[in-house]
Write a sequence for this structure.
């Protein structure tokens, strides 16, 4: 199996980001919350990426921000994934009114853009990590539901599933032992896309001031903190923006490759 | 009744039902969540008596469905209630801002649509060669960016590196059309970027899809020139998917516009929404949320209808 250069590049950058997130406390040169320099200092050997609106080191905040952004995105996309896939498989195997109710509910949720739904919901709920992860996870599970239901409907009519049913296997066995292993490869590619979506979503919410709240801070929030500097030609806000862009593009490259591989496995029907 | 007309009516009714269902979810779903408007207004230290009084005054002691129907009846008459934060009429505030949002969105659409189709055609025409790879690569990168990140890159480039524009977009009543146009230039560029990428990629996919069909091969084999093949055989068949791609992507503008307005402090509906989410002003959020939902649903149904009308097989169902 040959891995294309773009996918390899995407994988290595993603890995670096994850390592940064894990080891942030050890590699960050300065503490996250203390003002170590003057306000809006330009990049120098002391402050590699300069300082922010109240004199905190941008590089250090960027490294800690990676922790929050990647953690929230990962947990919410895992949630979206397990919920969406479970209900999708359930709808496909059970059919009937369960399928009907679940599908219509998902249709309803997808009839409105997720950002709008999130804004409405977050105007009532308290803004904390758990709420954010739950809201993002549930909203995003609708897309996973559609995909996994579509994939599982194809698989559920296969002979081996029929055989398992006739053997008297339970629902759980059929979902986890018969359908899941065969539906895995399109779902893995989808996971990458869901993860990027979650990164963009949490960054956007934080940028709007409705995501991660201080003292925690993520990349979207950092753009918000430092946006006023742009008017004076200070590029501080662009650093976290760049980080979001690079992470999103590199995961996209990997997902793109997995997607192409799975579609060629199915006889090259294309995406 | 003509079957086509019947289909159209069916879709419209379906869309209205969907909108009604969405309004129920936005209203009642939010009610079910933990959180209390009266508490939010009076703060944590409010006495139980004060809370009860305020609830009675706002009608919060009524059962939810009663409040929903009261709200719906008022909303249908154009009365969206008053904002909790400043007690001003919501419908009036929305009316002032809706125009600004539409102006921005329409300007962006007017530029983005022809550009996206043009680029999509070029990419599909040179499928697999460098123009295609260049266009596809750049648009893939653009899709990966959230709207506000794209916005700040554009701002930095056009206000700091090259001094062309002002970083803040102020529009006020009485401004001339061209002055207004100049003021929204920067947010417009960002919105165009955001929509363009999706629209162009889907246009390209739609054309490539048609180009792979058997009748295109037949047309090529009977010796038509490539231009004739595209013009006479590919385009008539690709036009329906392209139009629905365009309309679906205009629906994306709904989300883009919210973020872009905040970035540029552009006084319009999206900014109004985000401000009042932060202030926890539920009536405003519900009203604006439903307007955005209605536009989104409306555009999606329009895409659906165009798809049906343009497709002969659906136009004359067996």
């Amino acid at each position: 199996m040959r891995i294309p250069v773009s996918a390899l590049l995407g994988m290595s950058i993603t890995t670096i980001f994850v390592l940064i997130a894990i080891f942030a406390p050890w590699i960050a040169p300065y503490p996250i919350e203390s003002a170590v320099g003057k306000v809006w200092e330009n990049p120098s050997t002391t402050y590699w990426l300069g300082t922010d609106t109240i004199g905190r080191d941008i590089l250090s905040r960027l490294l800690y921000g990676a922790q929050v952004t990647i953690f929230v995105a990962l947990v919410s996309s895992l949630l979206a994934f397990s919920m969406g896939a479970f209900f999708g498989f359930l709808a496909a195997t059970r059919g009937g009114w369960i399928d009907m109710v679940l599908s219509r509910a998902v249709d309803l949720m997808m009839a409105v853009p997720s950002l709008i739904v999130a804004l409405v919901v977050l105007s009532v709920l308290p803004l904390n990590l758990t709420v954010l992860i739950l809201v993002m996870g549930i909203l995003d599970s609708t897309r996973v539901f559609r995909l996994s239901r579509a994939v599982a409907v194809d698989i559920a009519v296969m002979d081996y599933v029929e055989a398992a049913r006739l053997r008297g296997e339970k629902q759980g066995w059929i979902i986890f032992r018969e359908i899941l292993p065969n539906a895995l490869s399109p779902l893995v590619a989808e996971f990458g896309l869901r993860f990027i979506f979650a990164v963009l979503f949490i960054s956007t919410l934080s940028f709007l001031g409705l995501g991660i709240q201080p003292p925690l801070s993520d990349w979207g929030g950092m753009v918000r903190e430092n946006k006023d500097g742009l008017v004076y030609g200070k590029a501080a806000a662009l650093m976290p923006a760049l980080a979001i862009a690079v992470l999103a593009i590199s995961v996209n490259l990997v997902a793109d490759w997995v997607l192409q591989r799975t579609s060629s496995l199915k006889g090259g029907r294309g995406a | 009744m003509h079957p086509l007309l019947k289909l159209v009516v069916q879709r419209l009714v379906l869309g209205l039902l969907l909108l009604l269902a969405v309004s129920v979810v936005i209203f009642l779903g939010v009610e079910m969540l933990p959180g209390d408007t009266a508490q939010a207004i009076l703060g944590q230290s409010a006495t139980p008596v004060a809370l009860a009084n305020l609830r009675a005054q706002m009608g919060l002691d009524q059962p939810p469905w009663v409040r929903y129907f009261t709200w719906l009846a008022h909303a249908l008459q154009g009365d969206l209630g008053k904002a909790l934060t400043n007690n001003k009429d919501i419908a009036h505030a929305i009316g002032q801002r809706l125009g600004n949002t539409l102006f921005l969105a329409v300007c962006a659409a007017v530029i983005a649509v022809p550009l996206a189709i043009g680029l999509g055609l070029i990419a599909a025409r040179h499928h697999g060669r460098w123009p295609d790879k260049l266009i596809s690569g750049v648009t893939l990168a653009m899709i990966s960016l959230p709207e506000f990140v794209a916005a700040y890159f554009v701002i930095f480039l056009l206000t700091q590196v090259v001094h062309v524009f002002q970083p803040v977009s102020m529009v006020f009543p009485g401004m001339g059309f061209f002055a207004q146009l100049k003021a929204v230039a920067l947010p417009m560029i960002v919105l165009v970027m955001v929509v363009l990428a999706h629209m162009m990629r889907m246009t390209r996919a739609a054309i490539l899809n048609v180009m792979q069909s058997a009748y295109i091969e037949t047309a090529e084999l009977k010796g038509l020139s490539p231009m004739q093949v595209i013009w006479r055989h590919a385009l008539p068949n690709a036009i329906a998917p392209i139009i629905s791609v365009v309309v679906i992507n205009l629906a994306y503008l709904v989300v883009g516009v919210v973020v872009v307005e905040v970035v540029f402090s552009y006084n319009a509906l999206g900014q109004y929404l985000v401000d009042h989410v932060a202030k926890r002003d539920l009536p405003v959020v519900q009203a604006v949320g439903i307007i955005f939902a209605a536009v989104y649903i409306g555009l999606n149904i329009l895409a659906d209808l165009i798809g049906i009308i343009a497709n002969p097989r659906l136009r004359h169902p067996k």
In short: Chain B touches chain A through 49 residues (CB under 8 Å). The radius of gyration of chain B is 24 Å. The mean pLDDT of chain B is 80.
